[in-house]
Design brief:
Structural class: alpha/beta
Strand content: 5-15%
Number of helices: 6
Distance between the termini: 30 Å
Radius of gyration: 20 Å
Number of strands: 7
Amino acid sequence: NTKVMAALVTGGSLRIGREICLSLARAKIPVIIHYRSPKTAALALKAEIESLGVVCSTVGADLGLMTESGSLFQDALKSLYASSGGRCNTIDIVVNSASIFEYDALLLDKTNEKDSRSKEGEEVVGVSPSVFQRHMMVNCYAPLQLSAELACHIRKRNSLLPQETHMRDRPQGKIINLLDQKLSAPNADHLSYTLSKYALGG
């Protein structure tokens, strides 16, 4: 495909997200690296990608905060436009790689030293509303929001094309959601994380 495509990768500065960014860059696809922290890792990866001759930008946002996740797509577009000197102003691919992975379980007891709420021999409810909500926000709602933003972005671009433009010549957009092997082999721990990935996977 000779068309210039650009990809927004959430959680792109570390681990799997970092490798995805590098793979896209090796395919000569401009990349927007989303990060929450640390910024230094995102900037180091940006420099590495730019050394390959590929346009790259960074954008920071906490996907657990509605105010930041809600503006991420538009902030990514602005960052890409600035980094490319005005040559790139569209996003065609969203890779939802960012996630949080905090321990919880339906019931906890004293043998689990990761939780201090239980007394010896006593079981307590292990699911915290705040932990559950945070997992759903970062791991499910933010990807849903970015997917909707991409769909609107693609639809707007298509509306500007001549009506006779063939479907193959119209922007399509691609959304890639990273799930987890826990969905095919579930266990009792990291319950909120697992449920959020089930929700994302549909």
